[in-house]
Design a protein that fits this description.
This protein has one domain. The longest helix is centred in the last third of the chain and has 39 residues. The chain is built from 15 helices and no strands. It has 336 residues and is mainly alpha-helical. The N and C termini lie far apart (56 Å).
């Protein structure tokens, strides 16, 4: 699921190249799939042995922050040295600091995006993690999870009723945050599913895979429909079906797919560098037909190869270093 979500987002940023063979923009629902997966995984990995709020928070920081800061600083350095490569506007240090602290702000383009533009989703992720830590801090796991869901719903409802104008309030009251709550609910519900089922139930689970074309084509077919209704619901159906199929004996064991899934986070962060290169090539070469298809395949191959290399040689070492720095308990001083 993570590999699918990441690759869908890649296609969004290849739109100039896809347009040369008359393909419409698709793949935005990869973000919705990521959010549902995130809510699911947070509950799935903590419900049997809930960590403390502090342990949870520092684990998330160790996992998310180091590679994001590296990628963000790289974009900032490129934009500072050669603004023409990234839209022609030099970023300011204040934007870099807000990006690294996951504070949403409006760029010169009018969009609410950090320096590394795909990081807007991480602003939502870190907000969700903060709420999840609050839920863990209650000391009562299921009550804490219910509190997280209630807070998310309340924020969205208040945004709908009050129409806030401030950037953070408007940003975080987006209904897309309810996809985290939906993923949390799926983790609790699918745990109740029986281990053995009838052929009919298994067929229903397989039919859930039809949510994939809905995720891809839904925003194209129903552009004015609420994102939560089309993309969020399809993502929930797909994740639920995949979890049930695994519970009932079917799983993906292909090593290549699993490795891309493991590297999906750094793939998400790094692919804009390569996508931007191919966008500029498209503007220069004006490809069509087979040349366009070849460029698309080459770009996808480079995106995956770069992600696998970065995951092995940069992301994982940074993660281990951060864990050592954040997780190691200080020993009391030895008495003289």
């Amino acid at each position: 699921m993570r590999a699918l979500a990441a690759m869908m987002v890649v296609f969004v940023h290849l739109q100039p190249l896809l347009a040369t063979i008359s393909l419409p923009e698709f793949g935005r629902a990869g973000v919705d799939l990521f959010f549902v997966i995130s809510g699911f995984v947070m509950v799935h990995t903590t419900r049997t042995a809930p960590p403390t709020a502090f342990d949870f928070a520092r684990n998330r920081v160790a996992r998310i922050v180091p590679i994001y800061w590296v990628m963000t600083f790289a974009v900032f350095a490129i934009a500072w040295a050669a603004p023409a490569l990234v839209g022609g506007t030099k970023p300011i240090v204040g934007q870099l600091l807000m990006s690294m602290l996951f504070v949403p702000f409006v760029k010169a383009s009018g969009l609410v995006q950090p320096v590394l533009f795909v990081g807007w989703t991480l602003n939502y992720e870190m907000f969700f993690y903060a709420l999840f830590a609050i839920g863990l801090a209650t000391g009562r796991y299921y009550a804490g999870m219910a509190l997280v869901a209630v807070i998310l719903i309340a924020i969205v409802v208040s945004g709908h009723l009050l129409h806030p104008t401030g950037v953070p309030a408007k940003f975080y009251s987006n209904p897309i945050v309810l996809e985290f709550a939906a993923g949390m609910g799926l983790a609790l519900l699918t745990d109740l599913a029986p281990r053995s089922v009838s052929a009919g139930a298994r067929l229903i689970a397989w039919l859930s895979l039809l949510a994939i074309p809905v995720l891809i084509a839904g925003p194209i077919l129903w552009p004015d429909a609420p994102r939560l209704l089309v993309c969020g619901s399809a993502a929930c159906v797909l994740v639920a079906g995949a979890v049930l199929l695994e519970r009932w004996g079917w799983r993906i064991d292909n090593g290549a797919v699993l490795r891309v899934g493991d590297a999906s986070y750094v793939l998400y962060l790094s692919h804009p560098y390569i996508a931007q290169l191919f966008t500029k090539l498209t503007a220069r070469l004006h490809p069509t037909g087979l040349l366009s298809i070849a460029l698309i395949l080459i770009c996808l191959g480079l995106v995956v190869a770069a992600a696998l290399a970065l995951h092995a040689w940069l992301e994982r070492p940074l993660w281990r270093l951060a864990r050592r720095l954040l997780m190691t308990e200080r020993l009391p001083a030895r008495p003289a």
